[in-house]
Amino acid sequence: MAVAVDSLSRRFEALRPHLNERQRRLWLGAEARELGPGGAGVVAAAVGVAADTVRRGRAELDDPAPAPVGSSRKAGGGRKRAEAHDPALVAALEQLVDPDSRGDPMSPLRWTSKSTRTLATALRERGHQVSEFVVRRLLKALGYSLQANVKTADGRQHPDRDAQFGYLNDQVKAHQDEGCPVISVDTKKKELIGNYRNSGREWQPTGDPTQVNVYDFIDTDLGKAIPYGVYDLAANTGWVGVGTDHDTSAFAVATIARWWDAVGQGAYPGAGKLLITADGGGSNGSRTRLWKTELAALAARTGLTITVCHLPPGTSKWSRGRDRPHGRPPARIPTCGTTASGSCLRFWLRSARSGRDASHGLAGATELRICPSAPR
After folding, report:
1. Is the peptide bond before 330 cis (omega within 30 degrees of 0)?
2. CA-based end-to-end distance of the chain
3. Range of the structural domain that residue 36 is part of
4. Burial class for 163, CB neighbours closer than 10 Å (0-12, 13-18, 19+)
5. 313 part of a folded domain
6. What total number of domains does the chain contain?
7. CA 105, CA 295: separation in Å to the nearest integer?
8. 360 neighbors 250 (Cβ within 8 angstroms)
9. Which of 7, 38, 140, 192 reaches 20 to 30 Å from 253, CA-CA?
10. How far is CA 187 from the centre of its chain?
11. Containing H/E element for 203?
12. Are both 52 and 177 inside the same structural domain?
């Protein structure tokens, strides 16, 4: 018998890694049947399993309805799920997370986050014994998922909104048909000047990333960069003036003037008109008196008839020049030490010169020319 027990133990250790739970039970049951009465105890002692496991395997050999292929247990086996023990659990969970219950003053989660931990705690307070894992499983089964807020509510729509954009479109076409420039202007995201972290990636030796400051506190000596973009709709090119003081109307118009002197005047010889499209706020806002005064001075100096078309409130995202000069990094601006970016546009530094008084936002201004056909 001792030899048989040793042989049984060796065979089991050899086959064990290749058998699933049900196959192990069936094999043990078959060995016990061959040993006859008392075989279940001998097999259990030889391989180190419970005798009841061997008996169940022996009984499954004669089962007329075996478990499905690939399954180790019959359907219905194992511990029952929480919702089976507590039929009211699912309804209580839906009451907590249902959007209609958010306005209910009796809802305990009206002013709290809907994390699985918070939901589980609220359910336990209502007498339902449940864990975070069960709450997560039930939420997925009910069709819920983690979602962020989506900006879809535009607010009130002006009854003449379509007519407003139609007028802007007609103005643009009329100026372009006459061979006059049409530009879109906007202030870009302000950047801290110095060794700061910026979004995006660039090729570096493995394990040697660029070291930057831990905290993004402004450097009182270097200040910040304020890019103001001018996008030429017809030529699909842009001009960015980077100020280091304030985003003022004087700075905005000075950037337009520099674009005209350096690019626009040569690209549109003989043009007598200039159309500017812009959003209604900031340094080029529709209610900013200095913006109008500076444009009047520019018109007097250049002889241009300048027309400004402001986009209706809440529609600045449709501005053609809003994101054109910014996109995929990296492209360094040595003067500022920040990272500019362009999705289809290449950047290169044209000049770095001091402009007007710092109070006008032009001290140490840096100009960049942007063009989609820049050489590699």
Report:
1. yes
2. 84
3. 2-61
4. exposed
5. yes
6. 3
7. 55
8. yes
9. 192
10. 23
11. none
12. no
